[in-house]
Amino acid sequence: SLLLFFYFSSEIGDDLCTDSDCPCHSNLNKFIFLNIPFIITPPGFHCSHFPSRIYYYVGTKMSFPQAQQYCREKFKDLATIGIKEELSRLSKPSLTWTWIGLSDNPISWKGIMGNDSNSWRWSVTGQTSKSKYSNWSLGQPDFAGGTQRCVGVNSFGEWNDYHCEERQMSICFGKKIG
């Protein structure tokens, strides 16, 4: 089952919008979306080429690699969360833990596993978030068993690391393919 909603972000890895579907934001970085092209830009706002994102909740439980593959085949990738407002929109419809596109990349470890903030990478880019935003649950990440390297989000918007082979629902983003 899929649940569709819109949100707008400037995270790396998104497709560019067209002039007619650009989200516009104030200097305070509050995002709004105008459904129709506008002729006069309201004072204090400017149109940016930040793309809109379409998110899909996928109700089928899968492992992280399966969810990642599914999202890449059917949409663009697992969800990337770069700002708090994005996270609050993502967390509302889901009542259980749900995969997002964040995992701990052992190739980038520089010390004890996961203590380096640069080891957590977004699926869509393979890079750390430019915004430096995170929302870990208390005591997370904890790397229980030394193998928890994939991240889920709960209904409160908090992140938790899990074994990548655990089966959870997932959140994909991008235009639906096919």
Index terms:
disordered N terminus; 178 residues; mainly beta; three-stranded antiparallel β-sheet; 2 domains; 2 helices; eight-stranded mixed β-sheet; Mannose-Binding Protein A, Chain A
Model description:
Residues 1-51 and 109-115 have low confidence and may be disordered. Strands 1, 5, 6, 7, 8, 9, 10 and 11 form an 8-stranded mixed beta sheet that branches. Helix content is 11%, strand content 32%. It folds into 2 domains: 2-47, no CATH class; 60-173, Mannose-Binding Protein A, subunit A (Mannose-Binding Protein A, Chain A, Roll). It is mostly beta strands and 178 residues long. The longest helix has 11 residues, at 64-74. The chain is built from 2 helices and 11 strands; from the N terminus they run βββββαβαβββββ. A hairpin with a 5-residue loop joins strand 9 (148-153) and strand 10. The chain is globular, with a radius of gyration of 17 Å. The protein starts with a strand and ends in a 5-residue tail after the last strand. The chain has helices spanning 64-74, 84-91, and strands spanning 2-8, 23-26, 31-33, 45-47, 52-62, 77-78, 98-104, 120-122, 148-153, 159-163, 168-173. Pfam families: Lectin_C (PF00059). This is C-type lectin domain-containing protein.
